[in-house]
């Protein structure tokens, strides 16, 4: 008998609710990352009556350890962002910004103070903090960014350098997942990830094309841990590599939620600096054997970092200095896939299968038979069809890192329409 599960069900009765889950369970690959957290995951929330809540969750099991209910904040909250374990920013429906200082959240939720640090102008419908100095907010489809320079900020002196990243951020939920990394769900059920590079410069990938329409609150403590609430239940997920803009390695726990009901807060928030991503140590492949996507990219980036000279008649060793490959475009992809020999653009399909271009994942390839092949690095904007790639093209350029569109224009100097997407048959 699982006494911990019984205990958590009893604690969950503090708040009432029911739930019906519509997610599909997903299996993950062999190599798993871990989330390195500074203690338990801290999730703050606000009840409909204006009281602050605090919940502690065990990061590696998803077990809720305790929930505490604090005092009424004294204003009507609209959006919130957790800076750290004892500092929360909350906006009011009147457009003011408040700093909530927590004195203790051990056995009781006691506040050290509620201070208004901005009189007006904070009209964001969503707010989140990335744990690394950047505060993000959305309003009318715009994504705004601020620099937070203090753990206990005092208005414009410590929250400044305001910029509008871009428009088009019409999102149902918003959460920071790490340093300038955002996850969000949409009304049509997609789960998206964003990497914010600067004003009008961001990358977007579709982690999941469907299944997230029921999620009405999303938060992350970083480290690849995501928490989504649907119909009052809180469910947890673990992204084995939150940096790869690929959702195939997200583990779901539909039969073991944080709680199946009881999460009735109007908003939830965690600091993305609570946990850190610790990359797994992948098994080293052998020539012609199974290889992980992460290892494919590590091998490719080694040649790129070394700027291996292009020479169809030459060869170079791989990262392990064990195997040698021809130093041209198809030799490069053969090296990245750790094949037994250097294939040509006409024979790469001997060890791979054709896939849809929209299904490309890190470590796949785009091949123009008898002409050129590039290695797919990841999406820049999956909805728009833009992506990043590595290429070994010609003696003038040697190793290249570029971006292009799968649907139009050119890829490494050749028409995008001429390329076919390939997936190595033994990629994990």
Provide an overview of this structure.
By secondary structure, the protein is mainly beta. It is 8% helix and 44% strand. The chain has helices spanning 3-12, 293-306, 329-337; strands at 34-37, 41-46, 51-57, 64-72, 77-84, 87-92, 97-104, 110-118, 126-129, 134-139, 142-148, 159-166, 173-178, 181-185, 191-198, 201-208, 217-222, 225-230, 233-239, 250-252, 267-269, 275-278, 311-317, 324-327, 352-355, 365-368, 372-381, 386-392, 399-405, 410-411, 414-415, 420-424. A six-stranded antiparallel β-sheet has the order 25-32-26-27-28-29. The chain has a four-stranded antiparallel β-sheet with strand order 4-3-2-21. It has a four-stranded antiparallel β-sheet with strand order 5-6-7-8, with no helix packed on it. The longest helix has 14 residues, at 293-306.
How is the topology of this model organized?
Layout: H1 3-12, E1 34-37, E2 41-46, E3 51-57, E4 64-72, E5 77-84, E6 87-92, E7 97-104, E8 110-118, E9 126-129, E10 134-139, E11 142-148, E12 159-166, E13 173-178, E14 181-185, E15 191-198, E16 201-208, E17 217-222, E18 225-230, E19 233-239, E20 250-252, E21 267-269, E22 275-278, H2 293-306, E23 311-317, E24 324-327, H3 329-337, E25 352-355, E26 365-368, E27 372-381, E28 386-392, E29 399-405, E30 410-411, E31 414-415, E32 420-424
Terminal CA distance reads 36 Å
Which structural class do you get from the secondary structure elements? mainly beta
Number of strands: 32
Based on CA atoms alone, the radius of gyration comes out at 24 Å
Taken from the alpha-carbon principal axes, the silhouette is elongated
Total helical segments: 3
| Model regions low in confidence, pLDDT < 50 over at least 5 residues | 1-31
Summed over residues and divided by their number, the pLDDT gives a mean of: 91
Strand order of the largest sheet: 25-32-26-27-28-29
Fraction of helical residues: under 10%
The multimeric state of the shown protein is single chain
């Amino acid at each position: 008998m699982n006494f911990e599960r019984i205990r958590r069900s009893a604690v969950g009765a503090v708040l009432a609710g029911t739930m019906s889950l519509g997610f599909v369970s997903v299996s993950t690959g062999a190599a798993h990352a871990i989330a390195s957290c500074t203690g338990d995951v801290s999730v703050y929330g606000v009840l409909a009556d204006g009281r602050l809540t605090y919940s502690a969750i065990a990061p590696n099991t998803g077990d809720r350890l305790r929930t505490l209910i604090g005092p009424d904040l004294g204003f009507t909250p609209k959006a919130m962002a957790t800076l750290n374990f004892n500092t929360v920013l909350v906006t009011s429906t009147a457009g003011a910004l408040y700093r909530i200082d927590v004195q203790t959240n051990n056995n009781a939720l006691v506040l050290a103070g509620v201070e208004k640090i901005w009189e007006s102008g904070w009209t964001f419908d969503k707010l989140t903090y990335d744990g690394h100095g950047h505060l993000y907010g959305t309003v009318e489809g715009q994504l705004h960014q601020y620099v937070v320079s203090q753990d206990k900020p005092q208005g414009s002196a410590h929250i400044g350098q305001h910029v509008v990243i871009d428009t088009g951020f019409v999102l149902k939920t918003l959460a920071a997942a790490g340093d300038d990394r955002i996850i969000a769900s949409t009304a049509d059920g997609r789960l998206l990830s964003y990497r914010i590079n600067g004003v009008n410069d961001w990358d977007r990938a579709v982690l999941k094309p469907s299944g997230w329409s029921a999620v009405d609150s999303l938060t992350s403590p970083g480290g690849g841990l995501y928490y989504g609430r649907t119909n009052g239940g809180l469910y947890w997920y673990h992204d084995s590599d939150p940096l790869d803009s690929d959702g195939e390695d997200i583990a779901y726990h539909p039969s073991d939620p944080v709680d199946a009901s009881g999460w009735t807060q109007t908003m939830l928030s965690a600091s993305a600096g609570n946990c850190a991503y610790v990359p797994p140590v992948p098994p080293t492949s052998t020539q012609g054997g199974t290889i992980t996507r992460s290892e494919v990219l590590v091998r490719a980036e080694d040649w790129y970092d070394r700027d291996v000279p292009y020479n169809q008649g030459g060869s170079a060793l791989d990262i392990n200095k064990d195997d040698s490959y021809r130093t041209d475009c198809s030799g490069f992809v053969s090296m990245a896939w750790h094949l037994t020999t250097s294939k040509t653009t006409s024979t790469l399909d001997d060890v791979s299968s054709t896939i849809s271009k929209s299904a490309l994942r890190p470590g796949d390839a785009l091949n123009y038979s008898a002409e050129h092949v590039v290695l797919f690095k990841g999406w820049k904007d999956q909805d728009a069809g833009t992506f990043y790639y590595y290429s070994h093209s010609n003696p003038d350029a040697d190793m290249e890192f570029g971006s292009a569109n799968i649907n139009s224009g050119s890829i490494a100097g050749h028409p995008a329409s001429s390329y076919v997407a390939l997936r190595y048959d033994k990629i994990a």
